[in-house]
Each structure stands twice: as C-alpha cells, then as structure tokens.
Design a protein that fits this description.
Layout: H1 14-24, H2 30-50, H3 53-69, H4 80-95, H5 125-135, H6 139-150, H7 155-162, H8 166-189, H9 197-206, H10 218-228, H11 253-261
Helix pairs in contact: 1-2, 2-3, 2-4, 3-4, 3-10, 4-7, 5-8, 5-9, 6-8, 7-8, 8-9
C-alpha cells in the first residue's frame, strides 16, 4: 500500500530544540510558548483518549506543567514533541474512564464520527466510510493510526509514546493502515464507488478532514494559566520515567481496563452507523 509507510520517516522540528532549551533554562516565556505551540495538538489527542473536554483540558494543562518540571528528564531536545504526547497520554490514563470502550462508545472513534443529531442520510460519504473502517480495528490499532495520521508522529515516536518495541509499532501501523484503507474501499464500494476510482477515493477520504485537529477551548488556556504559577506540577500521581527518559504509563484501573479493551474491535464495528458522541 503506497500510503502505509508514510509514518516511517524520521522527522524533527528545529523549533522543539529551542523550546526545550528555553524550558531547561527557566525562561519566563517558555511555558506560554509551549502552550501556543502544542495546546491544540495535545488537546485533540487528549479529547480522543478521554472523550471529555474537561478531562482533556486538565490532562493537557498538567502535561505541560509536567514538561516544565521534568524537562531535565527529556532524553533529547529534538524529541520534545513525542515526549509531550507521552506525558499527555499518561495524564489521560490517570483520568479517563474506559468502561464504555467495548460498548460502542470507544473514545478513539469520537474524533471521526458525526453529531448524534445528524441524519444518517446526510452524513458525508467519506467520513462515514472512515468511521466504519476505524470501527473494525482494535483500540490499540486505532491509537497508532491516530498518532500518525492526525498528529504526524513517526513510527519511532509512536513506539516511545505507547511503550512499544519499534518493530511492534512498525508492524502494527503498516498492518492497521493497510487494513484501514481496504476497509474504506469496501465501505465506498457499498455507496456506489467502483473501478479505479475506489482506491483514489479511499486515499482522499483518509487524508481529508476526517483527521483534522480539534481546537483547544479557551477554558484550557485559563486552566493552564491558573496553575502556571505552581511551584511544581500538581498531577495526581508523580511522573515516573524509564531509564531512557520516556514517561511510564500509570498502573491504574482505568489503564488496565483500556488495555483489556484493546484486544478486540468495539461493538461499533458491528453497527458503525450507530451514533457516537463526536468531538466538539
């Protein structure tokens, strides 16, 4: 599949190095700069993981503060971006309730679904096709797709964020992306698309607004500002890192439930047209 390897390339952002050094040196404007650069991206990810604006905002606010307070643990200034995603994921796991993950209300589908009030007949064809295809994947597969397709992380970076061996992350992404494109093709065929246009339409669907970022609400900036003066981050659990400086995920009930939910497709796969709360 031509698009399946898009996430394997190693990329870095020179601006991240400057931000990391500003945080490390304690510059007064470092945290506001970090917010302006990453708040929308991290909120979009957190909103998908938690399926809740309030929890997502809190998770991002404390992840940014964790970054400020633990910047000395950053393994490489060029890896600030995936490191922030790891901190955000950790904060989400501390807060999220994954009890509905097997009932068709999987939060990882939220950002690619439509409002519950929408008439199924009016749903955009491509969005519906992507939603149906994503519902056929496991939660673990969808999170890899989420990080690569929506957030532009490389497979190497995903492996760090998710705590996976690099080979496992590569295999998961390539297999999931191939399967996803095939499922989108099948969904489009059911709408009348046929012939050579099917593959082209599927690729267009997977690169369109189905994977747009969710803009962080104004409340997130206010929440971040309200705790910015704290002498240290007020996360409900101290951040732990592995020997290479990457955040370890918390051993909490929510995380254990999430891990169990990752072993099979959600109930939404059986009824992909069923309404699921959309990201706002």
């Amino acid at each position: 599949m031509s698009g399946a390897l898009d996430g394997l390339l190693h990329v870095t952002d020179p601006g991240d190095s400057a931000l990391a050094r500003a945080l490390a040196s304690g510059q007064a404007n470092a945290l506001p700069r970090l917010y302006d650069t990453y708040a929308d991206r991290l909120f979009s990810y957190a909103r998908v993981l938690t399926s809740d604006d309030s929890q997502a905002s809190e998770a991002v606010a404390f992840a940014l503060l964790d970054a400020r307070d633990q910047i000395s643990r950053l393994p490489d200034v060029q890896q600030l971006r995936p490191w922030l995603y790891g901190l955000t994921r950790r904060e989400c796991l501390l807060r999220a309730d994954y009890s509905d993950a097997r009932s068709g209300n999987d939060p990882l589908l939220a950002a690619t679904t439509v409002p519950t009030s929408a008439n199924p007949d009016d749903i955009d064809r491509d969005t519906m096709a992507v939603r149906q295809a994503l519902a056929s994947l496991t939660t673990a597969d969808r999170e890899v797709i989420e990080l690569v397709k929506r957030h532009g992380l490389t497979i190497e970076q995903c492996s760090r964020v998710l705590g996976l061996h690099l080979v496992t992350a590569k295999t998961t992404f390539v297999d999931s992306a191939t399967r996803l494109e095939r499922m989108v093709e099948q969904a489009l065929v059911s709408t009348g698309v046929s012939g050579r246009a099917t593959k082209r339409a599927a690729r267009d669907a997977l690169s369109a607004s189905s994977f747009a970022l969710t803009v962080a609400p104004p409340a997130l900036r206010e929440l971040t500002r309200s705790v910015m003066s704290a002498p240290q981050a007020l996360s409900p659990e101290s951040v732990r890192f592995n020997r290479r400086g990457w955040p370890l995920m918390p051993a909490v009930a929510g995380a254990a439930t999430a891990a169990a939910a990752m072993t099979a497709p959600t109930a939404a796969a059986a009824n992909p047209a069923a309404p699921v709360t959309a990201a706002s």
